[in-house]
Amino acid sequence: MAEYEMQESNLPNEEGERILYPRMKLWNQVNLEYIANNINYSSSFTPGDIIGLVRSLTQEIAYQMAQGNSVKVDGLGIFTPALGMRRGKERESAEKGGRRVNAMSIYVQNINFRADKQFIMETGRRCRLNRSETKPGRSSQKYTPEQRLKLAQKYLEEHPYMKVSDYCQLTGLLRNTAAKELMRWKEMPETNITTNGAGSHKLYVKRKETTIP
Questions:
Q1: Residue 168 lies in a domain
Q2: Is beta strand 71-73 parallel, antiparallel or unpaired with respect to 129-131?
Q3: What is the CATH number of the domain that holds 176?
Q4: What pLDDT is attached to residue 14?
């Protein structure tokens, strides 16, 4: 059974009052293999069949988006490619005769997903919520800095990179505080945390070990 907690918004309302909003408490992240094994118990498909089909589906969706199409999967949602400017490239000017950018300066930055209403309803139909008994609070109350560092290091052992929003989710810190603390970890070589990219594209990654010849 899922749990929710009431989280404080970063911004107060017009009257200056603190606003609380419900947020589901996520216990874990399941992968495709886990889902395939679950489906296998209630169907004639083997986990290999399911994994192969899903991978073929994602490849075809990627191909169609690469051709300039959005992709609608009934019961799931609509996938749409989103473009961005490559790091270090100047933006095009809207002024007449102004600077123009070429295709090499643009890339697929993200995939936008809009869930199908039926998908949302199906999730809601299966969801039974209980209020979490643990009171949400600032990360400084829930974890010590050392504990937050270990959470970040463990995350980077399991993922290729970490965004500020990921660290917020891990620790409960507000975005500005999370960004400052990540920069603090980056400036400490012993944490093995560094950055890749800059500005809005900055990602936190595990520092590569250097070998002395």
A1: yes
A2: unpaired
A3: 1.10.10.10
A4: 66
Predicted TM-score (pTM) of this structure: 0.57
Question: Greatest CA span in the chain, whole angstroms?
Answer: 64
The answer to whether position 148 is within a domain reads yes
Q: Would you give the DSSP letter of residue 90?
A: P
Total tally of structural domains belonging to the chain? 1
Q: Which two tokens stand for residue 210?
A: 């250097």
- Give Cα 116 to chain centroid, integer Å: 20
Using 70 as the pLDDT threshold, list the residues of the chain that sit under it.
9-16, 93-95, 98, 134-142, 199-200, 209-213
Answer yes or no: is 53 within a domain: no
**Domain limits for position 178:** 139-206
- Does 162 map to a domain? yes
How far is CA 89 from each of CA 19, 40, 83, 95, rounded to the nearest angstrom? Answer: 40, 48, 14, 18
Provide the Cα torsion 13, 15, 17, 23; round to 10°.
Answer: -20
